[in-house]
Amino acid sequence: MATDLIWKSGKLEKTYNLNRLRTTGIFRAGPILRFPDIHSINYDNKPSSMIDTRELTKSFRDKKRGEIRAVAGISLRASPGQIYGLLGANGAGKTTMLRMLATLLKPTSGTAIVAGYDVVQEPEKVRANVGFLAASTALYGRLTAREMIGYFGRLNGLDDGAIKTRIQVLADQLEMHEFLDRRCEKFSTGMKQKTSIARTLIHDPAVMIFDEPTLGLDVMTARAIVKFVRECKARGKTVIYSTHVMSEVEKLCDTIGVIHDGRLLTEGSLSELRERHGEQDMEEIFVKVVEAKS
């Protein structure tokens, strides 16, 4: 049996150690064959999780207030083909949590395994498998959307052929053809957000992290992005979706976690949360859970 999985896209080649993936729970035991395309893997059981955090904690030092725990011992799991929704007020710890998963912040303690790799021990391998859309993003105004996306494709090691193909796919999915060759400085908020999403996902990562992706968008653009996220799930991607829009959570998310003061207060499917907390409306559930811990 092969012990390594080789994935190739043009000139880009990645090697994954299957024994490592099994021990981290990403692939359970079963016959795994060697193919040139990672999507052709055969295995008896589906991957159990692509994100697995254990008591993940992040503290900051403030001169006036001393130590501040932005994230306090959060444990959660997310699997392929699943959208995990994170709900929390401003300052609850959502963005800090997402930044640790994307290796932009180093945890103070605890562990996080993303796509089979530890975020502290193997951050470069984590980043190769993650696309992170931050709530606040910027584009270089003098570049067109196509140039901007292509630039990030090269940063991720894709060759020109792979970049061209991926831009076409993303432009189709995000309805970008109308402005693909226009400079970013002339874009509306919705155009900028679609371009930001495309550059984030140019390398077709297995794990996608969205931090308030529909913030400030008009209804039609927001609907297009929600549709795109739903399609990502259908393609087997693992999605972490942070938002303040309760209706998006109800429509999109398979599992919902409520964060407050850096802690995960409750977690479950919408039906499980409704039964557990005695409310039907997600907003009422959220308020009830947060007020109970305040």
Can you describe what's shown?
The chain has 294 residues and is α/β, with parallel strands linked by helices. The protein has a domain at 1-48. It is 34% helix and 26% strand. It contains ten helices and twelve strands. It has helices at residues 18-23, 94-101, 123-128, 145-155, 160-174, 189-200, 219-234, 246-252, 270-277, 282-293, and strands at residues 4-9, 12-17, 51-62, 66-78, 82-87, 109-114, 117-118, 130-133, 207-211, 238-242, 255-260, 263-268. A six-stranded mixed β-sheet has the order 8-9-10-5-11-12, with helices on both faces. Helix 7 (219-234) links the parallel strand 9 (207-211) and strand 10. Helix 4 packs across helix 5, helix 4 runs parallel beside helix 6 (189-200) and helix 9 packs across helix 10 (282-293). The longest helix has 16 residues, at 219-234. It is globular, with a radius of gyration of 19 Å.
Task: Present the secondary structure layout.
Blueprint: E1 4-9, E2 12-17, H1 18-23, E3 51-62, E4 66-78, E5 82-87, H2 94-101, E6 109-114, E7 117-118, H3 123-128, E8 130-133, H4 145-155, H5 160-174, H6 189-200, E9 207-211, H7 219-234, E10 238-242, H8 246-252, E11 255-260, E12 263-268, H9 270-277, H10 282-293
Parallel strand pairs: 5-10, 5-11, 8-9, 9-10
Antiparallel strand pairs: 1-2, 3-4, 3-6, 6-7, 11-12
Helix pairs in contact: 4-5, 4-6, 9-10
